[in-house]
Description:
By secondary structure, this protein is an all-alpha fold.
Amino acid sequence: xxxxxxxxxxxxxxxxxxxxxxxxxxxxxxxxxxxxLRAVAALGVVLFHSLADTPWHFELGAAGIHLxxxxxxxxxxxxxxxxxxxxxxxxxxxxxxxxxxxxVATLIAILSTFxxxxxxxxxxxxxxNVLTSLLFVPHEAVSGGVFPVLxxxxxxxxxxYFYALFCICLLLPVKLRTxxxxxxxxxxxxxxxxxxxxxxxxxxxxxxVCLEFVAGVVAxxxxxxxxxxxxxxxxxxxxxxxxxxxxxxxxWESQLGWTANLLIPLGAAATIVxxxxxxxxxxxxxxxxxxxxxxxxxxxxxFQTLGFALVSAVLPHVPAxxxxxxxxxxxxxxxxxxxxxxxxxxxxxxxxRPGQVGLEAQSxxxxxxxxxxxxxLR
Length: 378
């Protein structure tokens, strides 16, 4: 684990180089590329929601969710493979990372029922819905479907399920962890496809999207073991073919049926490996804006509806095209502001004791800003 002085040096170097335009150094953990992918995924989801009530639709934007899920598997394995934490420390790191900001967003959704009734879809004050939402338990929503009080929080129900499985696998010998994790998820999805179990919990935990998490885990292992001597051109080709595969499968998901459930995680994983490999080869460009947008992607995703609400309240009567543009800009600005003024202070508030900072920084590398990520750049 680096000392405080080493961390300060790494942080200073990263800040100095952030806007230099130079390629990223090889032999570095993939970091910028993952933030770029998060930024694009978050933008796609925001566009998808922004266009929902217009004559135009952008169904492909929802594919950003598949990318997020696969990145989660990739990051969790990458950040724990060298120095596996105890199950308790891993669980606490994920709780600190996910829960506080999600609870803040959920509270806003609940309060919206008094200020803007009906604007936040699925928002309610029903105690059972509020409690199960705060605990990430899949349940039947007030307007139908399996959604928490904060509509977009449905993805976090899958995230926490994956974290729970990964936490349990940490109890096993290292050689058995990946096979146990993949075996459980694949078996559960297969059982779900055959039996179509009733109930929100079983429907969630047997959903084919769970395959995207294990695809990320497997992708991280493949990159670690076999990605040392591949040319940048091949990494770029892999990323491009992966993106075409998972976007095409997402666009024609209903027509492809179960084939799409396999092509989407495979394509997303190939995209991530290609981008991460490109970065490791030293051929990745640097964009401070894209990185910052990626760092703020969790806040943008959770609070995008707040950005939409601000536009609707201030400019209720504008042409649809202008409204969509304002929605996107407001959602991104809101996300970056929340990340800076709420998310990062909450992370610092709930950060572990000094001796645990190394693990905490590794396990939350998903969305932390430069100064918090620098600790893994050793």
